[in-house]
Every structure is written in C-alpha cells, then in structure tokens.
User: What shape does this take?
Amino acid sequence: MIEEIGTTEQGDLIINVGPQHPATHGVLHLVITLNGETIKKIEPHLGYIHRSIEKMCESLTYRQFIYTTSRMDYLSSHINNHGCALLVEKGLQIEVPPRAQVIRILMDELTRIASHILWWGAMAMDLGAMTPYFHAFRERELINDIMEETCGARLTMNYQVPGGVMADIHPNFQRRVKDIIKQLYKKLPEYDELVTGNTIFKARTQGIGYLSKEDAISYGVTGPSARASGVSCDIRKLYPYEGYEKLNFQEVMHTGCDTYSRYLVRMIEIRESISILEQLVDNIPEGDYQAKTKAVLKLPKGEFYTRVETARGELGVYVVSEGGTTPYRIKFRSPGFSNLCALDHMTRGQKIGDMVAIMGSLDLVIPDIDR
Amino acid sequence: MWSLSKITDIIHSWLTETFNPTWTLIIEMVIVGVGVIGLFAVLGLILVIMERKVSAYMQIRLGPNRVGPKGMMQSMADTVKLLVKEGMTPDGADKFLFNFAPFIAMIVAMLLMAPIAFAKDFQIWDINIGVLYITAISSLNVIAILMAGWSSNNKYSLLGAMRSGAQIVSYELSAGLAILVIVVLTGSLQISDIVAAQANGWWIFKGWLPAWIAFLIFMIAVTAETNRAPFDLSEAESELTGGFHTEYSGMKFALFFLAEYINVFIVCGIGATLFLGGWMPFHIGNWEGFNHVMDYIPSSIWFFGKTFFLIFVIMWFRWTFPRLRIDQLLNLEWKYLLPIGMVNILLVTVIAILKWHF
Assistant: This one.
C-alpha cells in the first residue's frame, strides 16, 4: 500500500513538511528525505507567500515604500521601517532630531523584546509544550498596547518615517514602558523556571543542530543564531546607528553552537534590551519628533546601503537611485533567508523531532524569507 | 456504609422472580452493556471538558464559556458537530482496516471497564485474574493504532504508528512491573481482594518505599501508554501534524479521541485501585471519630475522587512538559524505568516475605 510513490531509489522516505504544517509557522515547504526517523536531506521550497515587495517598491515613492516593509518581517516591523528610514536620511543627509532618535531606539527594543518573547513561546510549542505560548502572549500583549497607543497599530506600525517618527509619543508612554519593565523582571524568572531549566527541554536542545563558527559565517547566518556560534555580528555594536554607540549594553555571545545556546542568547538579549529601555525611558530629550523635510523626496543618483539589527539578524536595504522620486531597484538582505539556508547543514543525521527544534531555534518568519 | 449493592440485589431478585434464568442473564447483560456505553459517553464528555478547562486554567485563558453554564455543554456541541461531519476514507487507504481501527480502539477501552470496581460491591466482572486481564487487554490498544497508521496511506500516520508501536510495547513492561509490586503485597490478582487488603490503609502508605517507586513508575508508564504528553510522540502535532489519526475525520476521529480519554480514565482508575485504595475511604489508625466520618462519604465518591485526581495529574503533565524525542523516550524506559522496576520487585518481595509492611 505504501508503495514506491514518495520514496527515493535507495528506499528512503520523502515527506513534504508544509506548506501547511504546524512546525513551519507559515507557508514554508520542506521536502525531507528520511531514513526511518533520521533526516538525510532537507530541501526548502520557497515562494508560497511571495508578494514581490521589492518590485512593488520600485513604483512607490521614498515615503511610501517604507510601509511595505512592515509586511516583511512582521514581528520586527519597527526595525524594518527604521532601516529604510535610515537609508532615505542617509541619501538626503537629513539630520534626525535627538528626541526622534531616542523614540526610535525605544520602539526598536520594545519590538525586539516582543519578538523574542513570542519566539520563546513558539519554540516551546514546537517542542510540545503548549502553555509557554500563552504566557508569552500575556507580556507581548502589553507591548502591543504601548504600540497601539503611540503608533495607532499593533502589528504593522509604520511609525518611523524619513526624518523621525510619525507622531509624538503618547503621554502614557513612559509610564507604560516602566510597567512592562517591572512586569518582565517579575515574569522572566518564571519563563526560566518553566522552560530554561526543564530537563526534557535541555535534553531536546543541548548538542542538537550544531553550527560551527566557520559554517555560520559561510552560510551568512546573522543575529542571535550566529552569535550563539561565537560570531560577533551585532550591527548595533559593529556599525552603530541612531546613537546606539552611546548606550551601555553587551553583545550577547555564546560558544555552545547548539540549539540550547541559541535559546540562551535570545533569553539574555531580552534582558539586554530591557537595560537599554531602562537607560532611555527617563532620558527622552525634549524637542521635535520629526525633522523638517521636503514634501517630495528625491534621492540623488547613486547606490545606497544601510543595515540594521532586527530581532532575527542583519537586515540590509540596498537602493539604486536614478535621481527620481521612486527607487530604480531595491533589494532587501533579509536575515531569515540566510538563516534558513543553514537548516539542511544543521539537521543532517538528526531525528525528525530535532528538525522542529532546530527550525524553531532559527526563529524563521516566512514572509521575511519570501518577501 | 451505604452501598450500591442494595439496588443491584433488588433488580436481580426481581428479575429472577419474573423470568427464567436464561432471560435474567440476557437482560442483566443488556443492562450492563447499556450502562457501560452510557458511562463511556458521559465520561468522554466530562473528560474532554475537564481537559479544556484545566488547560485553560494553566494557560491563563477562560476556555470554552459559551455553550451552557460556564461552557459545560461545549463537548456536547462538539459531539454533534463530529456526528454530522462526513467520515472521509482517503483514496489508496485499505478501506476495511481504516474503518475498523477506531472500533478496535473503542472495544479495547470498553473491555477494560469490566473489572474496575467503581464503588463498594459495584463491579461488572470480578474476575480472579483481574489485574492480568487489564494488562492483557490494554496491550491490544497498539493494534488499533498500528492499523490506523498503516491503512491510512499517509507517511505522517505511518511514522506516528511506528513510534506508537515502539512506545506502547516498551512501556507495557514498566507498567506491568509496577502493578506486580501490588500483586506481591496483596498476594492476589483479583481487584476486589486488592481493594479489601487496603481497608486499614492504602498501599501507597503501607507499602513503604517500593510502593512509592512503583506508583511513580506506574504514572510515567501509563502516561506513555495512553500516548499523552510528554510522551505523545504518535500524535506530535508539531512534527507529524496529527500522527496516526491524521486522515481520520468525523465520528471515526471522535472514536479515537474518546478511546484516548477513556483509556486515561481507566489507567487512572487502576492506579487509584492499586495504590490509593480504590473505593476504600481514608482511615487513620485508631482515630475512631475521624474514620467514622470518612465512612459516611459514599464509596463511589472516593473512587471517582481519587481517579479524577490522578487524571488531573496526567493533564498537569501534558500542559507543563515539552515532548521527548523517540530515542530519549526509549532510553528512559529501557535504561531507567525497567531496571529500577526490576530491583523494586526484588525489594518488595523481600519485604512481603519478611512481612515488614503493615
């Protein structure tokens, strides 16, 4: 009955994980060659949620194209917007007011915390523990409320525009941020109790999905996934933007190279982001929240590139301008795509259950991969 | 103590007076059959709503709260939905095995109801090898899962069934060894004897360390045997979508679902009977007054209370722990639980021979 269909010549089983599958968190399609439970090869098939954002951007002005980037990596939409806004500011030499800079960093770090918290829940859910997911949403909800109050939206914020931010912060903003800091300090030990120290969780993640430093560099893995392999790649430290250089925070590194160290790096990054929030929340300078810009923005002829550190790694924005109101060509270097490329290398010889854990630890957001 | 045996005696004597012995037997069998099916359905509904409420409580949610008071009728609505759904049989499936597998799961779960003592003198079949019967029948469950997985013509189902086969066959051993501890202490395989032996104290208190170890091993092993998280590898929704029942829909799926919950109830019932004294009330040594008060609580409440406590513990496992991997699962059984169980048997034999237990 289970005849030759779906097996290779060596008699290995080929199964299609996705495009609709609980483990892929989206419409990712993985063709897995299995020998019993052991994975021999993984071949990702992309394109199920390709919306041709890059092509679309070519017909949108420099103010408009930023909004489409919220839809790429929807869990760090602030940071995507930030990268694009930085590019336009770089091209037009716009000076961003200090107040706007601080608000931008606050928003970026809140987004990073929200993204990492959601990832924590999803990771635990991939490993079969349902409950952390709901606990994660409790804290993420508070951050979303802050976003809703100040930016007007909860997921695709579109708050950062060329020259600053769209609107001034809500009067409640500072109080709310302090509340969330307090809440997180109370709940993070609970997170550790529930998942980090769990024996089953450790057994499932330690020594699984080994990615050496050399491999991480050659696959172009960035973000927490690479830092867990000992690669220093935090754009906030290496190529500081928006005044990150003035802040006191650590680049979280780990040399475990396995799934568990990728987990630990993200958990410590949440704490680092909280410390950035603490440094800035009481020191928001007075002044304008947006620089005066022309109504129609025209980038000079040439090529422009900026990079920012999203929750998943390095986002590069590359624009070729012909001097018009719209970009001639735009290209995003998305962290998810490069991180996914390392999946095959990391999963070979592991069990199918490990594949889910490894994929979870890479923190993939499928619209970010496909764009 | 008030007992249900009065009712059964009245019915039995009335039937024997009215009909000849053959008819009496047939009628009694029909009553018992209808009773078991009724209990089956009611327990299924209660356990499903209980699972949803427990998980909601642990996940800071409200859970179902629309149908009926506090959402208590939600599982009724779900049953109706499943009943009217189309029962699909996929192309390329082995039709006979595919449609037969859910019924095997059901039949096994129903057969297991027979020797359980629900209350004082309220037992369908007090067979003299009750414990052996339970271990024998419960191991048939794997056949249903293997049939379902194989006949679905789905690779996820096949993987799930493969895992389940390895898992249930392994954990059967540990559960058996844990049960054997109580059999050694009691000296009988009959359920009523085991319960009677706990009249002055439950085995978990009287049996010293071996009973504790056996209880822990039993709880772990039955969680694995009923395919509940953290051992739900045969379903493993984040890896294998639905595992062995991926292709099932409508009432055929519901039968698997129901059988799983009934199995949970049965293994917890057995755990309560063996280790926590079944329907026996909680007694403390010479505290006459206290013991007297305890005796006033009906025996069925004692049994169901203990059983539902154990069910809650198993649900607690499910909503707390991540899932194990297949090799870790088998390591746990063959490297830890089985050797510990065997040493435990030796220990309890020594204790039983020297009469060190109370």
